[in-house]
């Protein structure tokens, strides 16, 4: 057993942790904006799924993974618009709508995939994102291989954390978002357009989740398979709660979930005698533990999940 | 007043179904399929034969159970998104009983495997219930996470400890024949599970609307604070609601094992848990509405398979239609209420 | 002189209700104009129309001589109208500064220059003598301080007309005095102020003119120097007001409720009751007066078993009930009209009969063997009760949500009284209900006292306390400040105690 846990093991483990935390981080940051404005979004899972497929389609059609990302964003926006219209304009229960969005996404993605590529057994190959080592930094001992030999989306995702912080706490937009999520009527009385803010935040979550999905299909697996998101969108929802609706907390939560994911892959690979299914359960069990007792409900935005009707 | 209820409970669902079908038709046009041809197979292809109709009922059985499961928790104000996992562990329990006790009399083997499925599902639903009651953890997230855990648990069991003796496929041996659910109509697959599901429909209705437990659960669901004020132990009821909801979903695993597969295999019945949510919403979270909606979903899913065979349309289109039905229904209900309010205002 | 505001023939309807009918209102520069009316007279609706939160069905609004049509609060704010709502529109988890600048555009692009705003906010606060701390969190402020934040918030947006909706409801008499002097100072500097209120003495004390609303219509506009309480009351209610319901002399029986040194922490962990003691005897009404938020909610919830006290004892008929479950306490003879009928008192989507058996659903004869409900006997009992207590409802199987506030409250009162409680705990029993229902509920409470029940009445309406109580106790910061019998009580002394100042002797 001791030979397993070498320095090399830890370096690859941590590098994988960073990489695997990205889809959760991206989706969770988007989910944070949505929830901060008061809209629960468990449709993140479906938005990631459609992002994963559209990313592949975009890259397949144009040959550019960047165009793929744009496609993924479009897919995310499409589902986010549905979610926003249902929850914000009509006032349908947020959780129920999110479930419907997920069901729709499962159907849409598998149908479109088959309609486009036929019922194949060989995965469709597309141009994906390649690792981009940062000159100078990549050669740093330990840190280099862990942090600076990732693909470009990884760097962008981590840069989004301080950016999200800046927007949320330093700008008029951020104050408006936080106000709407705490007390929409008060926001209304100072002239903040509650509907507009909520729409924008839900759309933002769709964009982020779409990119997160494309990261899976273009930056990690380099293909699309049915249901390939396999709960990462839901884990992202958990990360928002576990991260107490703060960018820094969400970063920490995403890294924990990324570590659980990385650990299960590494441990499967080294062969420990423990059934591999136990490792596959790990990220989900970690989420259950994280949601139990470790979090208080007090920090949730006060108007979370509540529809606002003006008249 | 009566007319208003008719609009919400009947006209809106029908319109939602039609609108979803129309949108689905547009998708079919995109892939160069004649929607009329495809839909005649999807909707009516299986209604012309007894076998076809029986297949629809067979498909509806587990959906009725997971639909009841969602309804039961929903009426207590909770979202059980974990019917899928609860069904899996129910199936595991039913198979274990079927393997070990399948040689007993059917009058023992069948009730025992039903009981085992109820208990296993109840435990799987009870875990999020307990976490909700003790820590206030989101039952939504926990039930979803436990779905994945159940999937891998099943995968492990059929891979290792419960693998068939020949060891060829990752699946269990057949359960004892005395644990098979008897077929109701010869030359069809319609099995006793259908009647068992209908029995649970009535049971859930009686529990929710005719007993003090149901009164308590619905009070918690509609107004937690008032329930507390009324001396109802809110946490216990939440736990109970999720555990019983899980037990109902566990029965879906029992009917699939005892009535259809007679053994356990990886991913033996995908998506039934989520179909249950859809039918519960479509059925307005009432037990009888769940039955009607499940029959519709059964029809669509069996029809979609026929459509894939005869017209070459990917069967997955049925999930798009199902998702659209829910969205149109939810949105349509609100729009209909707004329309009624506006009309009421015009009269006043 | 041109009025700053002219509202002409404003009509606003909601489904089934005409909230404003052809209302006319003129407000002059530098004037304090009171809008007087009962709950539901249409005052708040009218002001929400003015502020752009509601759109009028018909009518015209002129502000500073120009025809205006505010589609949102943003338009109204831009034109120079500020509104301070009865329930403050503040975010508890934001700082005072963030509460003041929220909704304003950024300074450099979308970024705020908080230092600059901070300076300007302090400058305005100083100019009007409104002491605030921009860096404090609103959730840590007293109600009076929160109100100052609201005023500064409006001034910061350069308001020329300030609408104040029931600003004194949550203040102590002393805080009210301070507020009024602030308002007078503002009006001297040219600010126009509309004061929404249903309190006659406030109108006479601070307003220059008053417009009386009743049932959505303007009854009269007059100068306050030509008015007195009696006249205003008549205009407001439309008939002679029976201020004090008749009741026989008090004949106290044995002690029913005895509370000793009760300590309770609220949900946020802050001490809400700090060693509170009181006793209530059968056949008497003890009224607890006090400003909202001084532990009234926690006192009621502790008695009812809904929160667990940290220390102290509560005896009901001599039996300790601390730590007992709500159901046990109910069975020992508590009837509880809760503070918020929508939150606790009713399940709005339950039928009336389901609401009527809310605490007794598990008992014979409503629940038979094996836990089955006896729907027919429940229905007939409910129907009977609705008739006996004059609840206006088509039948017992409609949802509670469909009833008016007054009738909903009557359902709660009927349910609690019909169980013939030994202790009736009535918390804000007439909040937000119409005059007819208020009188009816007051009669029922007095009837309970004559029957021999002990009544603990908790109300922030001093007039209600004075009208019903045999004894009056004043609660302040979780303690009883003092107690007196209700024959010619010294209102001034009650007011001082509500502000936390114990008797005059101790003060000197």
TrEMBL record, chain A:
Cellular compartments per GO CC: plasma membrane
Topology of the protein relative to the lipid bilayer: Multi-pass membrane protein
Pfam family of the protein (one): BPD_transp_2
Subcellular location: Cell membrane
Gene Ontology molecular-function annotations: transmembrane transporter activity
InterPro entries tied to this protein: ABC_transp_permease
Transmembrane segments: 6-30, 42-61, 67-88, 95-117, 152-169, 199-218, 273-296
Keywords: Cell membrane, Membrane, Transmembrane, Transmembrane helix
Coiled coil region boundaries: none
Protein name (database record): Nucleoside ABC transporter membrane protein
UniProtKB/TrEMBL annotation, chain B:
Membrane-protein topology: Multi-pass membrane protein
Ranges that cross the membrane: 7-31, 51-73, 85-102, 108-127, 139-158, 190-208, 238-260, 272-297, 317-336
Location within or outside the cell: Cell membrane
Keyword terms of this UniProt record: Cell membrane, Membrane, Sugar transport, Transmembrane, Transmembrane helix, Transport
Name assigned to this protein: Simple sugar transport system permease protein
Molecular function per GO: transmembrane transporter activity
GO CC aspect terms: plasma membrane
TrEMBL record, chain C:
Start and end residues of each ABC transporter domain: 5-240, 257-502
Keyword terms: ATP-binding, Cell membrane, Membrane, Nucleotide-binding, Repeat, Translocase, Transport
Source taxon at top rank: Bacteria
A GO cellular component entry from the record: plasma membrane
Cross-referenced CDD domains: ABC_Carb_Monos_I, ABC_Carb_Monos_II
Keyword Zinc-finger belongs to the record: no
Pfam entry (one): ABC_tran
Membrane topology reported for the UniProt record: Peripheral membrane protein
Localization of this protein: Cell membrane
Name of this chain's protein: Nucleoside ABC transporter ATP-binding protein
């Amino acid at each position: 057993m001791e030979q397993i846990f070498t320095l090399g093991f830890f370096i690859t483990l941590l590098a994988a942790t960073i990489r695997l935390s990205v889809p959760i981080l991206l989706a969770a940051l988007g989910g944070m904006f949505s929830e901060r404005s008061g809209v629960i979004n468990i449709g993140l899972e479906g938005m990631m799924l459609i992002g994963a497929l559209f990313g592949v389609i975009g890259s397949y059609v144009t040959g550019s993974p960047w165009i793929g990302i744009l496609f993924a964003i479009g897919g995310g926006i499409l589902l986010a618009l549905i979610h926003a219209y249902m929850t914000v304009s009509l006032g349908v229960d947020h959780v129920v709508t999110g479930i419907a969005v997920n069901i729709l996404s499962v159907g849409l993605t598998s149908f479109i995939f088959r309609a486009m590529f036929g019922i194949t057994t060989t995965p469709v190959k597309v141009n994906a994102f390649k690792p981009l080592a940062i000159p100078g930094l990549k050669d740093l001992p330990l840190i280099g291989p862990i942090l600076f030999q990732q693909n470009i989306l990884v760097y962008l995702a981590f840069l989004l954390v301080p950016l999200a912080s800046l927007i949320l706490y330093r700008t008029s937009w951020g104050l408006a978002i936080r106000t709407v999520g705490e007390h929409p009527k008060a926001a209304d009385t100072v002239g903040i357009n509650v509907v507009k803010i909520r729409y924008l935040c839900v759309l933002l979550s769709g964009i982020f989740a779409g990119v997160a999905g494309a990261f899976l299909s273009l930056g990690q697996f380099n293909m699309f398979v049915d249901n390939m998101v396999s709960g990462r969108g839901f884990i992202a929802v958990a990360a928002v709660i576990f991260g107490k609706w703060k960018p820094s907390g969400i970063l920490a939560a995403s890294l924990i979930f990324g570590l659980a994911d990385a650990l299960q892959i590494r441990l499967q690979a080294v062969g420990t005698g423990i059934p591999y299914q136990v490792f596959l359960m790990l990220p989900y069990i970690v989420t259950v533990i994280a949601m139990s007792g470790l979090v208080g409900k007090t920090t949730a935005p006060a108007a979370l999940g509540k529809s606002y009707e003006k008249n | 007043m009566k007319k208003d209820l008719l609009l919400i409970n009947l006209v809106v669902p029908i319109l939602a179904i039609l609108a979803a079908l129309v949108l689905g038709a547009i998708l079919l046009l995109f892939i160069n399929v004649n929607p009329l041809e495809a839909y005649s197979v999807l909707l009516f292809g299986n209604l012309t034969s007894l076998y076809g109709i029986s297949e629809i009922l067979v498909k509806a059985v587990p959906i009725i159970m997971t639909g009841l499961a969602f309804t039961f928790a929903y009426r207590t104000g909770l979202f059980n998104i974990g019917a899928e996992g609860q069904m899996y562990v129910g199936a595991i329990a039913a198979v274990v009983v079927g393997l070990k006790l399948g040689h007993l009399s059917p009058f023992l083997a069948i009730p025992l495997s039903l009981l085992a499925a109820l208990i296993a599902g109840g435990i799987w639903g009870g875990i999020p219930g307990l976490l909700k009651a003790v820590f206030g953890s989101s039952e939504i997230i926990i039930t979803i996470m436990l779905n994945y855990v159940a999937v891998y648990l099943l995968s492990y069991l059929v891979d290792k400890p419960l693998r068939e003796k020949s060891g060829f496929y990752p699946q269990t041996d057949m359960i004892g024949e005395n644990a098979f659910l008897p077929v109701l109509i010869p030359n069809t697959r319609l099995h006793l599970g259908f009647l068992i599901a209908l029995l649970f429909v009535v049971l859930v209705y009686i529990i929710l609307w005719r007993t003090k437990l149901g009164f308590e659960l619905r009070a918690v669901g509609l107004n937690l604070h008032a329930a507390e004020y009324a001396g109802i132990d809110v946490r216990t009821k939440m736990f109970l609601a999720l555990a019983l909801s899980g037990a109902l979903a566990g029965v879906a695993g029992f009917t699939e094992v005892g009535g259809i597969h007679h053994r356990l295999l990886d991913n033996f019945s995908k998506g039934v848990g989520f179909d249950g949510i859809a039918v519960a919403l479509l059925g307005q979270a009432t037990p009888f509405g769940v039955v009607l909606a499940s029959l519709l979903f059964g029809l669509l899913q069996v029809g979609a398979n026929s459509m894939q065979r005869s017209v070459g349309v990917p069967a997955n289109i049925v999930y798009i239609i199902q998702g659209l039905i829910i969205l149109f229904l939810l949105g349509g209900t609100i729009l209909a209420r707004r329309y009624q309010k506006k009309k009421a205002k015009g009269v006043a | 002189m041109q009025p700053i505001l002219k509202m002409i023939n404003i009509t606003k309807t909601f489904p089934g209700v005409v909230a404003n009918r052809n209302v006319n209102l003129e407000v002059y520069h530098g004037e304090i104009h009171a809008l007087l009316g009962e709950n539901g007279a249409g005052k708040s609706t009218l002001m929400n129309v003015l502020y752009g939160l509601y759109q009028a069905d018909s009518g015209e609004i002129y502000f500073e001589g120009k025809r205006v049509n505010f589609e949102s609060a943003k338009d109204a704010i831009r034109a120079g109208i500020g509104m301070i709502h009865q329930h403050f529109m503040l975010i508890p988890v934001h700082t005072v500064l963030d509460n003041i600048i929220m909704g304003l555009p950024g300074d450099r692009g979308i970024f705020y220059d908080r230092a600059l705003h901070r300076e300007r906010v302090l400058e305005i606060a100083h100019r009007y003598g409104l002491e605030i701390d921009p860096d404090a969190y609103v959730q840590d402020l007293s109600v009076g301080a929160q109100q100052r934040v609201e005023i500064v918030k409006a001034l910061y947006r350069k308001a020329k007309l300030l609408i104040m909706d029931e600003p004194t409801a949550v203040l102590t008499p002393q805080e009210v005095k301070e507020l009024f002097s602030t308002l007078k100072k503002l009006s001297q500097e040219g600010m126009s102020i509309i004061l929404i209120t249903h309190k006659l003495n406030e109108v006479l004390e601070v307003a220059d003119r008053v417009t009386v609303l009743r049932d959505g219509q303007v009854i009269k506009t007059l100068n306050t120097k030509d008015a007195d309480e009696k006249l205003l009351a008549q205009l407001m209610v439309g008939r002679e007001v029976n201020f004090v319901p008749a009741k026989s002399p008090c004949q106290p029986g044995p002690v029913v409720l005895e509370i000793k040194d009760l300590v309770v922490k609220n949900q946020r962990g802050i001490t809400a009751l700090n060693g509170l003691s009181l006793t209530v005897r059968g056949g008497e009404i003890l009224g607890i007066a006090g400003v909202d938020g001084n532990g009234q909610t926690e006192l009621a919830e502790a008695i009812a078993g809904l929160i667990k006290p940290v220390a102290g004892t509560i005896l009901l008929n001599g039996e300790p009930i601390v730590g007992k479950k709500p159901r046990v306490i109910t069975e020992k003879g508590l009837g509880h009209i809760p503070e918020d009928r929508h939150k606790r008192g009713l399940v709005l989507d339950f039928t009336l009969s389901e609401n009527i058996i809310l605490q007794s659903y598990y008992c014979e004869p409503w629940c038979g063997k094996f836990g089955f409900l006896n729907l027919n006997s429940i229905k007939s009992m409910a129907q009977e009760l609705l008739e006996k207590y004059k609840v206006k409802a088509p039948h017992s199987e409609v949802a509670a949500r469909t009833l008016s506030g007054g009738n909903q409250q009557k359902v709660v009162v009927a349910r609690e009284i019909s169980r013939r409680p030994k202790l009736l705990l009535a918390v804000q029993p007439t909040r937000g209900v119409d005059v007819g229902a208020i009188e009816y509920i007051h009669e029922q409470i007095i009837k309970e006292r004559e029957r021999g029940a002990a009544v603990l009445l908790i109300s922030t309406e001093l007039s209600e306390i004075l009208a019903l109580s045999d004894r009056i106790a004043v609660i302040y910061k979780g303690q009883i400040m003092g107690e007196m019998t209700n024959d010619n009580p010294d209102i001034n002394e009650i007011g001082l105690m509500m502000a936390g100042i114990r008797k005059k002797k101790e003060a000197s």
